[in-house]
Amino acid sequence: MINTHWHGDHTGGNAEFADTAAILAHSNVRKRLMMGGKTTFIEFPPVTGKALPVVTFEQGLSLWWNGEEIRAIHPGIGHTDGDSVIWFMKSNVVHMGDDYFASAFPFVDLGSGGSVVKLIASLDVILGQIPADAKVIPGHGPVTDVAGLRKYRRMLDEVVATVKKARAAGNTVEQMQKEKILAPWDEWGKGFIKADIFIATVAEDLAKK
Ligand SMILES: [Zn+2]
Q1: What separation in Å is there between the alpha carbon of 188 and the centre of ligand 1?
Q2: Residues by chain with Cβ below 5 Å of ion ligand 1
Q3: Which of 96-109 are b and which e, b meaning 16 or more Cβ less than 10 Å from the residue's Cβ?
């Protein structure tokens, strides 16, 4: 079993599988599970024992199962600092973990080493490798395709540019929220990350540069 990142909604079942499956993940998943932590939305207690991954990697690895190569790829910083994308090469299916929220602003966990700006670069790493006709599974939202993933990447790029411009003009986060600078991307704000939260996240991320 592969954990795409450490958040409890993607690792909470680990203990149930540990007796029959080896748990694999990026090394930062094991590290952060052991520490536990609080995101903006929920607190995850430290994880111990058999619920922890027993095989960890930095860049990625390949599994040769069911007559195909299954690649786990760490494309770089994104949703957290320990995300993996899982590519079932023969099946032509790509699981993006939470680097991809289909049709919604993503939750990007800055407190777990994530970055919206770096997420865009990580998406490019994946888009540069997968076939144009691959099926793409997001961490949240409906199954889509490469066109859907590209559209999401373009939205992130445009939103970052918009917030960057507002910051350069001296606007505070409150002003950006009041002026609804993300109004052109309204359709993306119907998930659990609303436009105001996403403005704050992108601005905080940009302030770190
Ligand atoms: Zn997550």
Answers
A1: 18
A2: 7, 98
A3: bbbbbbbbbbbbbb
Asked if 115 and 121 count as a contact pair (C-beta separation under 8 A), the reply is no
Residue for token pair 């052991």: 34
CB under 8 Å to 177, separation ≥6 — which residues? 195, 196, 199, 200
Sign of CA dihedral 148, 186, 155, 195: negative
Cα 204 to ligand 1 centroid, rounded to whole Å = 18
Q: Which parts of the chain have pLDDT scores under 70?
A: 209
Ligand 1 center–CA 4 separation, angstroms: 9
Task: Report the alpha-carbon distance of residue 187 to residue 195 in Å, rounded.
Answer: 10
Q: Over the stretch 133-169, which tens digit does the pLDDT of each residue have?
A: 999 999 999 999 999 999 999 999 999 999 999 999 9
- Closest by Cα among 12, 9, 49, 56 to 30: 56
Q: Considering just the CA atoms, what is the radius of gyration of the chain in Å?
A: 17
CA torsion, ordered 19, 24, 25, 31, to nearest 10 deg: 50
Distances (CA, A) of 86 to 24, 29, 63, 137: 12, 15, 10, 10
pTM (2 decimals)?
0.96
